Amino acid sequence: MGRAKIPRKSTAIDMTAMCDVAFLLLSFFILATKQKPPEAVTVIAPTSVSSKAAPEKSFLITLTKEGKCFLIIGEETKKKAIINDLNTTRALGLNDAELKKLSNLPFIGVPLANLKGMLSSNQVIPPDKMPGIPIVDSANNELVDWIRSITNVYAAEGSKQSEMEDKIVIKGDNLAKYPAFKNIKYALKKNSIFKFKIATNSETVPKDSELYLFNKEGGNKPQ
User: What distance lies between CA 90 and its chain's CA centroid?
Assistant: First the structure.
């Protein structure tokens, strides 16, 4: 007796539900992904084997190879208060509109004497044309004033200094001269800040080094 033949039918798969899930996941990742904060200028930082990430809401001090200094106030909740404090302590004479415009700038890279003129102008100055925050020497180091206003705001809010120090990051170009970096350290030291982070580019841990063996042993320091 011959085998009964089962008629073949075309298989139809409804992909509607799968497409809905895919678009929901895509929307979630787009909304949940944290964008990298903008940098004032691009610098080539030295390398290190450190794997610790810099805090997102940091006070980033950037030093170019030409010795120009830029400041990014990443702590948005305190940015307005810091700028207001600087305007008061240094008697800059900025009005409300200029203060608002300054607080909306992604970074600071001009001397205090040029702030009012820059804010009143409609012309946008590119970062490479900015002179940077003066850090020439102890007599002309305006980074001291910016750091002082940061410390004033934290002190007024009753925050611990360690919380502020944990957010101070210095990112210097690999070709930057040490005297310029020393002047940045002077600005911090002048405000009794002795701890800060240095941003570097990561590199592979050398094999058989102490850190390599430390990681290999699961965090147990080799004898």
Answer: 25
Name 141's Cβ contacts closer than 8 Å, sequence gap at least 6. Answer: 134, 135, 183, 186, 187, 190
Q: What is the pLDDT along the chain (223 residues), one digit of tens a residue?
A: 566 666 666 666 677 777 777 777 777 767 766 555 566 677 778 777 666 777 778 999 999 999 999 999 998 899 999 999 999 999 999 999 999 999 999 999 999 999 999 998 888 888 889 999 999 988 899 999 999 999 999 999 998 889 999 999 999 999 999 999 999 999 999 999 999 999 888 777 677 667 667 766 765 554 4
Task: Provide the domain limits for residue 193.
Answer: 54-202
Question: Does 167 map to a domain?
Answer: yes
* CA distances, 189 to each of 7, 89, 162 (Å): 86, 19, 14
Q: How many domains does the chain have?
A: 1
DSSP 123: P
Question: pTM of the predicted model, to two decimals?
Answer: 0.76
> Is 20 part of any domain?
no
Establish if 119 belongs to a structural domain: yes
Task: Give the number of other Cβ atoms within 10 Å of residue 182's Cβ.
Answer: 12
